[in-house]
Automatic annotation (TrEMBL):
GO terms for molecular function: methyltransferase activity. Pfam families: Methyltransf_24 (PF13578). It comes from the Bacteria. This is Class I SAM-dependent methyltransferase. Transmembrane segments: none annotated. The keyword Manganese does not apply. GO terms for biological process: methylation. Signal peptide: none annotated. Keywords: Methyltransferase, Transferase. It comes from Streptomyces decoyicus.
Length: 232
């Protein structure tokens, strides 16, 4: 994967702006229609970056750990649909997502497994080529996926982890503190649109979105603690 920088993400906004505009409008309408029955966990920057990276990387197998109500699931599936290929394998201990994801999005490109992934690591496809993690945010789970999930997917797998930078630094004894420490030990750089951690990133991307006419919010949020990186 090309190194993630503001310049790279900005180029993806320009490259995929027409398709992204359609997805943004659909997601905005879906969120409005569902109201409180859809709790969106990603803000616009995180969701759009996920969509744009998946469009550009064109993965065949995406693994999503943690679906909540399906907001991230819908963005991922939208990217796979627009790519014309790829399959998403999602895992969660609750199945709210099943009631929310539209059938025209899931089609033949989605497999949902209800249950604790820690109890069934063998269900993770070994050929996964994108990994999305947004589940238990405790340090114990972070240690688990570093020790068990990361080695189960191919080297150099692009990965994103949510709920890392709620402030300038990860919360003590949290998933974020564990993964950031591990990345430092591995000399792996990460990219984040977190307003708390890297406000200059969202400022620059906001200018790009305004120029492209993509500045109307899909959902009102400035909470964007996700990080993006590539496994060793």
């Amino acid at each position: 994967m090309e190194s993630i920088t503001v310049e790279h993400i900005s180029s993806l906004y320009a490259k995929y702006q027409d398709d992204l505009r359609v997805v943004r409008d659909a997601q905005r309408k879906f969120l409005k229609d569902r109201g409180k029955s859809m709790k969106a966990q990603l803000d616009d920057y995180e969701a759009e970056m996920t969509y744009l990276l998946l469009r550009d990387l064109r993965p065949e197998i995406v693994v999503e750990v943690g679906t909540f109500y399906g907001w991230s699931t819908m963005w991922i599936l939208s990217a796979l649909r627009d790519n014309g290929s790829g399959h998403l394998h999602s895992f969660d201990i609750v199945d709210n997502v099943v009631r929310n994801v539209p059938s025209e999005l899931s089609a033949d490109r989605w497999t949902f497994t209800k249950g604790d992934i820690q109890q069934h690591p063998e269900k993770v496809p070994a050929e996964a080529d994108y990994l999305f993690i947004d589940a238990d945010h405790g340090s114990r789970f972070a240690h688990w996926y570093i020790e068990n999930l990361f080695p189960a997917v191919p080297p150099r797998t692009p990965t994103s982890v949510h709920d890392v930078f709620h402030g300038r630094r990860p919360k003590p004894f949290s998933e974020g503190s564990v993964i950031v420490k591990w990345l430092a030990e591995q000399n792996i750089e990460f990219f984040t649109p977190s307003t708390a951690k890297a406000p200059q990133v969202t400022e620059q991307l906001a200018a790009v979105k305004k120029e492209l006419g993509l500045d109307e919010p899909v959902r009102n949020s400035d909470h964007n603690p996700m990080i993006f990186f590539t496994l060793p």
